[in-house]
Amino acid sequence: MDYLHDIKEYSEIFHRTLEEAAIRYLPEASRRNLFHISLLPAKIIWYVSHQNGIAVEYCPAQKTTNEVVEKYTARIEDMLLRAPRRIREGSRTKITVRGSSKVNIFGGFDDGLYPLRVECQNADISFFDAVYADGNWRREIRYAHIWGNLNPENWTKEKAVLSAMDEVVAAVVEIKRIEEKQVSLQEYIAKSKEKTVLVLGNYDDQGKTRIRSIVNTLRDLGYEAFTTEDIPDHPEQNLTQKVVTLASLSRFIIIDDTCPSGHLLEFSKCKENDWLTIVLHAEGVRGSWMTATGGLYSKVIREQDYDPASPQVALAMATSWAEGVLRDLKRDLSNSYPWRRVPEIPGKERERPKADMTIEATRSREEMRKLSVAKGREIGRNAPCPCGSGKKYKKCCGR
Prior knowledge:
Order of helices and strands: HHHEEEHHEEEEEHHEHEHEHEHEHH
Number of helices: 13
Low-confidence stretches: 350-365, 367-371, 373-377
Strand order of the largest sheet: 3-1-2-8-7-5
Structural class: alpha/beta
Strand content: 15-25%
């Protein structure tokens, strides 16, 4: 691959497609809100390390230009940070990125440690308004991104177009939902975005009925639930690319796996990207064994039986599980990434997210039965137990 030529061409096609698609699909007032357009005009510098990755940096400028810097012996983090040798080789490292990691870095450090080491091919690292200083050395980064993967397939013309369209589709989704809620952008970001849930499944007549029931119940629980049909297609994207874009915007994903459909491919994407996913089986019926055992090997996947005619109890339990996992992930990731840590106020108890219908796993059997009755439907003895065990009610909480 000729990185000097191909990366520069990728950048030019990406930004041109982004601007053309923004004009075509977005109202004028929203175009400047697209992240990469908001960074322009800029001097866009691409760094290519034949050792361990590719990076891009947006530097404020009077007009937009593209530049590619290629080296065979330098590491990608060293090329981006441009620290003197005494700091690169004589300091301990603040952050070492290993494994499959997506990392966002806000702000910077001035504690004498070298900011970053990249030690994995799947690194995906973003810098936002970062400032690093040590003695006479000072490095300011408005925005930059590092990818550990040098695969040439990631930097084709086709990938440039798809990446640009992903960003525009994401903006279309949020604008549509802001209009539906009739709130300001600030209110939407503050209150709604953290409650987004994508619902997938089969779109035949019965499947649509089940999906709509799930969506309505999630909205009763206080979530902003939507499906792929709620968002218009773009001719440049296939369905899988559309689902990946929408899933990335969501707090978690729910799949109705009652009969076979395209969601089986989407489930594999959920596993691949470690998205928090709830797989629902209507009264124990599954569409495919491909989704079986997903929860056994991943702490972010849960299988749950439910009654399509009365999904409230099962969904309340499933969303309670999801919120618990998200709290645990937030805590664990904050401990892993030092820049995410927020000092706790002594004597102040940590608040927990609330939902009107959330059921904690510690509820008694009698409380579970009463909740189901309160929602308008007594649990049948042969129905799936709402606790999610997979057993019939009479052999589980109904004993």
